[in-house]
Amino acid sequence: MSMPRRCTTSAVAYDRPMADADDTADRRARPAAARGTVEQALREAGLEWESPSEGTYVVTLPGTRKLSTTCSLAVGRHSLSVNAFVVRCPDENHAAVHRWLLERNTRLYGVSYAIDKLGDIYLAGRLPLAAVTTEEVDRLLGAVLENADGSFNTLLEMGFASAIRREYEWRTSRGESTRNLDAFTHLTGGTPDGGERG
Prior knowledge:
Layout: H1 9-15, H2 21-45, E1 48-53, E2 56-62, E3 68-75, E4 79-87, H3 94-105, E5 111-115, E6 121-128, H4 134-149, H5 152-159, H6 161-173, H7 185-188
Antiparallel strand pairs: 1-2, 2-3, 3-4, 4-6, 5-6
């Protein structure tokens, strides 16, 4: 018994509704509009940035705890993705660091902490192109800065305490400045001016 033509693969293909031309054009226009919006937001924020290829942006966010945070933005066909390096894989206390990151993730906007295969810590996020506005881009970059720069010392304390102590001892033994370790005097036993506590 032969199968009715309507049930064959070729017939079914013709039965599929064709995409509306206006809808297709709108989808194609969204990445271009998003690129323009991202560039406008970066200019308005007065940030240092470059675009190594169409739709990709490398942005330098100035910090206070970290000297700066490098953030990558990429406009795809359907979304704007953001990625920023926070700190390398902790030397110690991995479980506590990862628990802290997961608990912190529940309070973040637009981004979340993630680790790569080497254990390095990043912030990553994604925004639908339809939601990309200059305000949202600014808010997303603010979230990156707050959670890369703002959490930096906490992550160093949790994951690199032994290294911080060794660095402090090495510098003081050579009479070198320990100013950039002032935030960790509770770990080193020193004082903010580089001296030892009495």
